[in-house]
Amino acid sequence: MIWLIGGTSESVIIARLLSDLKQDFVVTVTTKSACQLYEDINNIQVVVTKLSLAQMRDFISLWQVFAIIDASHPFALEVSQNAIRLVTSSQDLCLPYLRYERETVTTNNHKNIFYYPDLQSLLSDNWILKQKKVLLTIGAKYLHLFKPYHHQAQFYARILPYQSSLELAEKAGFGCDRIIAIRPPLSLELEKALWQLWDIEIVVTKAGGKAGGEDIKYQLAEELKIPLVVIKRPSLNYPLMAKSVEDVKEFLKNF
Prior knowledge:
By secondary structure, this protein is α/β, with parallel strands linked by helices. The protein is about 30% helix and about 20% strand. Helix 5 (about 165-170) links the parallel strand 8 (about 155-160) and strand 9 (about 180).
């Protein structure tokens, strides 16, 4: 069985490929709603779970996993770290591991774009946000970091349309008038309308690639002359990486 660490649009493409090739595989996602991504794929098994390092070992044994394809979100650092640690440090496993990394978005416009290595460094340099109407498109689980700063800026949050995301936003101090729940990517027109509706003066996003609408945000930052803060992707030393479906096919030829 191949273990596909999923939950992203890229993992759906890979799942469809594995299904077409009649390859036995299991997909893990962390929310029930993510299962909907795979509804039209035949011969697929989707497991909703969040696995610790020890639980990953048990999962591999239970499902008789002989290879891992990691197509998790670029910012889902812990799951990738644990999977890599498991296959590289365990003498009794030594499983082939492939990281499918979505392409990065590049831009020639640097005037209105500010890069930070992480959210903590942004908040320690929070002068850039002070007294501004700030749109946060960073994921609901990070919103609590901004709770102590509500008195310094007017924060708005765009989150995924899940009950758990709404609860996290509310706990972080966001009222219903400061939240919009919608799945990205948005069209340029809808993204623009949202920024203008709230008179947004600065946007904070993650370098999540086109799947998260990063490219559209670059376009709008230039068009509307609105500063865009981009949190860089965490850097990991992946044993083997793929950036296309063809790369995945090459990996699968080994089995």
